[in-house]
Amino acid sequence: MSLDIEIIEKKKNPLINRLEVKFKINHFGQGTPNRLEIRKKIATLLQTKEKLTIVRKIKTHFGHAYSIGIVHAYEDPEELQFYEPFHVQVRNVPQEKREELYKLKKKRSSYKELFDYQ
Q1: What CATH number should be reported for the domain whose range is 4-114?
Q2: What is the pLDDT of residues 23-34, one digit of tens each?
Q3: Residues 77/18, Cβ–Cβ less than 8 Å
Q4: Contact status, residue 69 vs residue 38, Cβ threshold 8 Å
Q5: How many secondary structure helices (H) and strands (E) does the chain include?
Q6: Where are the domains of the chain?
Q7: Can you tell me the distance from the alpha carbon of 118 to that of 109, in angstroms, rounded to the nearest whole number?
Q8: pLDDT for 3-54, tens place per residue?
Q9: What is the pTM of this model?
Q10: 90-94 contacts: CB < 8 A, separation 24 or more?
């Protein structure tokens, strides 16, 4: 699927050391794109590391062929893990890893190496 992404707003947050981007995706005749596809495309547009780019929110309005979303691009993996909630981080990994992450978190085992931010 070809993604037509338009960056609406882009600002640098120096306190948290991240780039905050608001974007619009046109997807006429198709469903809302996958977070992983959006993450990959925006990381290439912003020239940031894909692993440190988090799709925070995607909102599709009923009856419209576009979605509005928010992306945070970090420079440091420790800051990403500190500021982004666990459930948002899990949404930005492939489906196969999600189930394993939830199982390890439930058992209170170490799970941070599965995110692979390095």
Answers
A1: 3.30.70.330
A2: 999 988 888 889
A3: no
A4: yes
A5: 4, 4
A6: 4-114
A7: 20
A8: 789 999 999 999 999 999 999 999 888 888 899 999 999 999 999 999 999 9
A9: 0.86
A10: 91/35, 91/55, 92/35, 92/36, 92/39, 92/54, 92/55, 94/36
